[in-house]
Amino acid sequence: MTRLTTNDIKDLYTSLQEWKVTLEKQTGLSLLNIAALAGDVSRGRVKSASWRLKVGVVPVTSGLGVIDTFAQNVAAIVELMQFEAFVTEQTDVAGIYEAYQREASIVFLADDNYFLAINTAKKQIVENSDATARGFVAALDGAAGGLRDRQVLVLGGGRVGQAALNCLKTHGAISVLYDTNKQVMADYAAAGGSILRSIKNMKDYELIVDTTPVGNWITADMLHPKVIFSAPGVPLSLNEEATASLQERLIHDLLPTGVITMLAMAC
Ligand code: 2YC
Which secondary-structure segment (H or E) carries 117? Predict the structure, then answer.
């Protein structure tokens, strides 16, 4: 799981409107639709929650500490979904207590290992890897006009990759896994999954979910000419030329798609 840096996200909240317009154009879906589809909840439920529930975001100082603007960016993304959101003054346990005192029904907080949304009113806890995988698969579904019976290549069999494979199954897709770790591939194959033996064949796939945490290793000639590339993986695997050649067929962001899905799932 790649840890974001302040440099990665410090200007994110200034480009959220642009991200919203781009993603809605790419998928033909509204943010509310993407979040509800991804979270497998009704739009009505998310909409009505936005009128009722307050969201508190708590900075956490454990491990490598607070990432400047992380909590503020999470709150800005939640506000984009028409929810009232605030970042607590306090951090850590005191921050959780403050969020509760300020009547937050949903609390977002992240240490170096997990990024969670917790619904304090009901037994609901959402983890970012699962939500992010769901969000990017839902966006791919929209952009591809449906995934049923379509071949989808998943790059990376870690936490997000495994969640994407599970989610693709519910979308009726035929998923294939590629990972550089032979054990991960062997385990997946042993469990009956399909694997891509050579990365050279990546160009046979029109639909890809890239969860790999390595940047700049995919060139345009490695990809199908009409590929739709949905990339929760950070940093982006595509090199500059491939990124430019894909344009609107590249679905990628560092935080918002996962956060809107966490929010929908926590409602
Ligand atoms: O500012 C804070 O509260 C920090 N404790 C936040 C640390 C987040 C670490 N995780 C990440 O950078 C990303 C997540 C957004 C999802 C996976 N890695």
Answer: strand 115-119
